[in-house]
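Teaching assistant's notes for section 4

Start the section by putting this record on the projector. Ask students to predict, before seeing the second block, whether DUF2795 domain-containing protein will look compact or extended. Collect guesses on the board.
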Amino acid sequence: MTVTGVQLQEYLAGLDYPVSREDLVRWGQENGASTEMLQMLRALPAEQFDSPVELAEAMNTLA
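Reveal the predicted structure now:
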């Protein structure tokens, strides 16, 4: 199963921005994210994201 940016955004709804990549991974671990989703979060190119749009754009670079 491939995780889409939309699915990730839905899963991460409610996060306060800015958010670090480390915090995204921690959020995923605490909320039962799949192994695939956690791998995608760890692979994100930036250390910090200032908005959901910025995070979505980073996710698009992984696709």
